Amino acid sequence: MSAVLSTTARTSPFDAAAFEQFLATRTEPDWVTDLRRRSFEAYRESLLTELDPEEWKRVDIRAFRPEKYHLQNASQVAEMGTLLADRTAFGGVVSHSDGSGTRSTLGDKWAALGVLFGNLTELVGTHGDVIRPSR
Q1: pTM of the entire structure?
Q2: Could you read off the pLDDT of 23-38 as tens digits, one per residue?
Q3: Which phi and psi angles does 95 have, rounded to 5°?
Q4: Cβ–Cβ < 8 Å for 42, 35
Q5: What stretches of the chain show up as alpha helix (H) in DSSP?
Q6: Residue 32: what pLDDT?
Q7: Does residue 53 or residue 36 have the better pLDDT?
Q8: Rounded average pLDDT over 121-125
C-alpha cells in the first residue's frame, strides 16, 4: 500500500506567488524577511543552472513528481516524534509540523547556562538581537 501526500496537482508549487503568500503568514522582523527573500532568489537561480549529467547519471528520479508536493497548513499534518525518544535523554526537544514549530522544551541545566534552543520563529522574536547574523 502506498500513501499519497496530496491529490491536488500543482504545476509550480514553489513559485513567486506561493512564496509571497508564505511571507504574508509570517510575523518576523525585516531582516529575517530579507534573508528569506535572498534565499528564495538563490533557489530560483539554482533552477536555471543546468544539472551536471555526470553527477546525476546514476540517480533514477523518473518516479519523482514535484508537482504533487505543496505547502500545507498546520491542520493538515500530524506532529511526529523522534525514533530515539525511548533510547536516550535529550537536553531539549523541538517539534515541527510541516515547517512550523509546535513545541519546544529545554532542560533547566542548559537554560541556566544561557543556551538558546527552540523554534527559530520564537527565538527570532525573543532573542533576535543575539541570533541576527552580523553584516
Answers
A1: 0.61
A2: 998 888 999 999 999 9
A3: -110, 135
A4: no
A5: 16-24, 30-48, 53-56, 108-112, 120-131
A6: 92
A7: 36
A8: 87
**DSSP code at position 83:** T
| Inter-residue contact 16 to 41 (CB < 8 Å) | no
CB 33 within 8 A of CB 26: yes
- What DSSP letter does each residue of 48-78 carry, written as one string? HSPP-HHHHTT---TT--GGG-----GGGS-
Burial of 64 (0-12, 13-18, 19+ CB in 10 A): exposed
Whether the Cβ atoms of residue 92 and residue 106 lie closer than 8 Å to each other: yes
Confidence of residue 6 (pLDDT cuts 50, 70, 90): very low
Average pLDDT over residues 104-114: 92
* Largest separation between any pair of C-alpha atoms in the chain: 51
- Residue 131 C-alpha cell reads as 541570533
